[in-house]
Amino acid sequence: MIATEHRHCQKNARVFKTRVESVNTLTDDLFILYLSGFPNDFDPEPGMFLHLKVAPDEHPLLRRPFSIQSYNDGTAAILIREVGAGSRILHHLQPGDEVDTLGPLGTTFPKIGKDDSVLMVGGGVGVAPLIACCHEADAGARVDFCFGVRSENEVQGVEPFMGERGPVHIHLSSDDGSVGYQGFCTDIASRLLEERSYTKIFTCGPWVMMAKTARLAIQKEIPFFASLEVQMGCGLGACLACVYESTEGDFIRSCIDGPVVDGHNVVWERV
Amino acid sequence: MTVDLSVTIGNLKLANPVMPASGTFGYGQEYAGLIDLNDLGAIVSKAVSPAPRPGNKPPRMVELKGALLNSIGLQNPGIEGFIEKKIPFLRQFKPPVVVNVVGNSIEEYRQVVEALDAIDRVDGFEINLSCPNVQKGLEFGTTVDGVARITRELRSATKKDLWMKLTPTVPNPGDLGKAAEGEGADALVAINTIGGMTIDAESRRPVLGARFGGVSGPAIKAVALKYVWLLYESVKIPIIGVGGIFNGVDAMEFILAGATAIQVGTANFVNPTAMPDVISQMADWLEEHGESTLQPLIGEAHRTQGAALSIKNH
Ligand SMILES: Cc1cc2nc3c(=O)[nH]c(=O)nc-3n(C[C@H](O)[C@H](O)[C@H](O)COP(=O)(O)OP(=O)(O)OC[C@H]3O[C@@H](n4cnc5c(N)ncnc54)[C@H](O)[C@@H]3O)c2cc1C
Ligand SMILES: Cc1cc2nc3c(=O)[nH]c(=O)nc-3n(C[C@H](O)[C@H](O)[C@H](O)COP(=O)(O)O)c2cc1C
Ligand code: FES
């Protein structure tokens, strides 16, 4: 659901303990965390996230938000980049360790129907929620997935998640040219937009990449959905820490009225 | 043995002494799916100002070591928005509802109190005298005359319970407390966040969009405890302790320092069930220590001589 009216609470969110199944290291700073032990009725949709208490004590203090990349047979896969203390602790978890988990939280990407032709632009760990969307796409749909990485070794870990490619066409780009096109994934997106017509554009990743994608979507007047990664506090809509500025001049909570938002409604230019 | 956690604050009877710290629990709705609001001692709302406030530019929150720094900027829907959108929800619950009030002038505080005085579901007001994020709020909060004046004005505007939430960074908490008590406040709430900032050395600029913010969480507990202690020595009206309370033992420390009730703030962000957890941990504490009610424990640390023999949990 994309919130047109602001939501009152995170429907179905609960606090529970999950268990680490395994931690799969992909590169120096990239890994996949597999968690199990979710409640029976846990049923996340593409774009939703978990808010993890990474340590049992107060260091670090706040929970850390992570998108659910896939959820199958009671196990969630989360693609994580180690950037600080919290993600480092998660990287070093052992099978069987318990993780205090809050979720599922947030809004979702619109479903990809059989008549849809969707352009996806994802960078780094921002591909996680986009991959979740691909899994749920109807047969007959077409997805062009522009996927930007730093270098080739980041792709290998993520590829198995693309599953049966079905409707998904992957267009790789890398910073160092070790795989695909050398340059920005938004360059590829821009070219594709000249070649085909799309019903929707989805994006998730670094702000600059999403802002460039936004410019394309605005130019072409295509419905545009972005998953924002704004620093969060409660994850529940209570603290008002996670706001982004809307084009109407409001500050909107990205944890509850996002993280997936109507990209046309976001002020992308930052001073 | 069953323990009785009930306490009385002014005209309000609370089933237990635990309530949210303003601004950390929204208007209750956000947590309603995760805890039962009827289990709380009271419900304290986020700030309400006369007109809606958009709040500060992001980033608005940064984590520090053992603490948070926030500059939300009192974003709120204003009196009308509060009455229209929040009161219908709050009506469903049993615990008293106390509205946190903020303004840029005494007149603005008065406007909020007068407008909400007529609403039956509002049981009391918590007057936010110190928000480090709002410049003009400060002068009422830091001087004896200022506190006396605003308390007097608001006392004449409502018969409902009036709690004065005090500024932490003053040299004379006891004098401010006495000033509020002398003008008819029903209770004192201490403390609000402590002003602070943080700088990103790489980009060479302040991290918060608003530059300055307020520090909360475990790191301010010691400051809050001393404040409550000093107030207890100066006033007879109940004190509500707040600052870094994360569990039942933290809460008991505030009771022993002189608080009749406590508020849980930052802990709600870390653990959405923090308040019901604190309530049951306080009951466990009483039971384990052979106590049946809170009353004799309030301020007990003032009556026991010397320092603790064993120091745990520090
Ligand atoms: C809805 C949502 C979904 C997310 N999904 C993923 C995901 O699937 N995989 C993943 O690796 N990360 C994801 N993130 C980002 C992740 O939450 C942060 O990287 C993490 O919180 C950092 O914690 P830390 O303690 O390791 O680092 P910190 O020490 O807290 O921070 C280290 C650095 O990371 C930056 N940072 C911290 N929090 C965020 C944030 N929320 N967004 C962007 N930068 C941040 C800080 O500014 C700092 O520069 C998501 C964020 C949000 C809001
Ligand atoms: C995000 C946030 C928002 C707050 N908003 C308010 C507010 O609107 N009014 C107020 O009186 N205090 C506000 N406070 C202060 C808290 O009510 C409380 O006094 C303070 O956080 C100390 O308690 P803690 O350490 O348990 O968080 C806020 C605190 C935080 C962290
Ligand atoms: S993280 Fe608290 S309101 Fe969004």
Describe it.
The complex is a heterodimer of chains A (271) and B (314). In chain A, the strands form three sheets. Chain A has a seven-stranded antiparallel β-sheet. Chain A has a seven-stranded mixed β-sheet with strand order 11-10-9-8-12-13-16, with helices on both faces. In chain A, 18% of the residues lie in helices and 33% in strands. Chain A has two domains: 14-105, Elongation Factor Tu (Ef-tu), domain 3, CATH 2.40.30.10; 117-265, Nucleotide-binding domain of ferredoxin-NADP reductase (FNR) module (Rossmann fold), CATH 3.40.50. Chain A is built from five helices and 16 strands. Chain A is globular and about 50 Å long. With 271 residues, chain A is α/β, with parallel strands linked by helices. Chain A has helices at 85-91, 127-136, 153-158, 185-195, 207-220, and strands at 14-27, 30-36, 49-53, 64-67, 70-72, 75-81, 98-105, 117-123, 142-149, 168-174, 181-182, 200-204, 224-227, 243-245, 251-253, 260-262. Chain B is an alpha/beta fold and 314 residues long. Chain B has one domain: Alpha-Beta Barrel (TIM Barrel). Helix content of chain B is 32%, strand content 19%. Chain B has an eight-stranded parallel β-sheet. Chain B has a four-stranded antiparallel β-sheet with strand order 5-6-14-11, with no helix packed on it. In chain B, strand 5 and strand 6 (67-70) form a beta hairpin. In chain B, helix 5 (173-182) crosses helix 6 (221-234). Chain B is globular, with a radius of gyration of 18 Å.
